[in-house]
Amino acid sequence: MGIARRYVWAGLALLAGACASVQPPPAGIAAPLNTQACRTASASLHFDFAGAPPHACAITGERDFTVLVTPEHAPPINPSPWYAFRYEASGDAPISVTLRYLEARHRYAPRLADAAGAWRELPVEVAADGSRAVLRLPAGKGLVAAQEIITLADASQAISRWSKATGAPVFTLGRSHDGRPIEAIRLGRADAARLVILLGRQHPPEVTGAIAMEAFVDALVEGAGALGDVQVLVVPMLNPDGAARGHWRANRGAVDLNRDWGAFTQPETRAVKAWLDALPPKVRPVLMVDFHSTGRNLFYVQGDEEASPAQKRFLARWLEGRENAFPGYPFTLEKRNANPGSGTAKNWFHRTYAIPAYTYEVGDTANRDAARTAARALAVEMLAALPALDE
Fold it and tell me: What is the dihedral of CA 307, 311, 317, 318, to 10 degrees?
């Protein structure tokens, strides 16, 4: 049994006194993903779809359940407790689901998808210490998750749409531990001298960053004819295993990919580096933007002490002074190395290529429409600001 699965089942001790409806697989037998269910005569919870982790679930009443939300590997891990399940409940009475967090506190407000796939936020009762949260779900059927679920299929659909609009082929940079493709697309001419790199979903739960990235690329695709001597590498789903398995942070190798740049121990980061290493000499990276989510809207950018004059000019033209330019989407600039000495994409790209390398962080609770509108405008303004790097 793998380390992550042993850890999940060890966490069942927290549900002492309840009757767990799932059991660990026999030693040496790998249980299939996402087959667990919690079921009574009138209600049930299911974890049988992409993005749903194999949560431990206990039946605490006919219409009451407790779900243990555990990370994919033993702590320490970034406290981004992801959960997802679907439910079915007959009759008219609501059902109650208590989320208990192992080594973490409540972060993501629960969302419910309706039959048409539209998501809305659910009310939640959160314990004072954040260790648990209680949901009251209406009878019928529904899908609940920490954030909207953006699957691998959704990412593939977006990249196929960009390909159809521009004629640029979708290609595979490499494959994950589970053998899933790391899909990418290159906008603009392959011989264009300047390269912009856009990365997404290094961290699976960070859905608002993925929402912003899709809108950002949409704007670039619509203006692809004006790219000129700029080409753009777009990698919207760098951690497909983590997204499919409902991980909090890591890939299947139990590694935070945004700490693996430089070490390149994982196939996902190695795939990007191999593609960059194979670039012809005339093509040079000029900018990297890495899309993430956190508690508020911000950009991590290079501090004044490490940014060159050209990089400062670019920042001034693209982002400075724009912090309150977008209705419903204010952001801040963090001019510092947020993770000194660590293998973040931001650090590695800046150190390796001497280019501006920014982390585009979208707040967990950001207004989705405002985030999309801002991202589209920022994409256009990014292209307009790029000449500052050559002045």
Answer: -90
Give the residue from 57, 66, 149 showing the smallest Cα distance to 108: 149
pLDDT of residue 29: 30
Nearest to 80 by CA among 98, 56, 104, 102: 104
Mapped to the 3 state alphabet, what secondary structure does 227-271 carry? CCCEEEEEECCCCHHHHHHCCCCCCCCCCCHHHECCCCCCHHHHH
Query: Residues of the chain with pLDDT > 90: what percent?
Result: 85
- The residue among 154, 152, 136 whose CA lies nearest residue 144 is 136
- Distance CA(6)–CA(58), nearest Å, equals 17
Question: Peptide bond preceding 26: is omega within 30 degrees of 0, i.e. cis?
Answer: no
Q: What are phi and psi of 310, to 5 degrees?
A: -65, -40
Instruction: Report the alpha-carbon distance of residue 220 to residue 350 in Å, rounded.
Output: 23
Name the pTM for this structure.
0.92
d(Cα 386, Cα 391) in Å, to the nearest integer?
Answer: 10
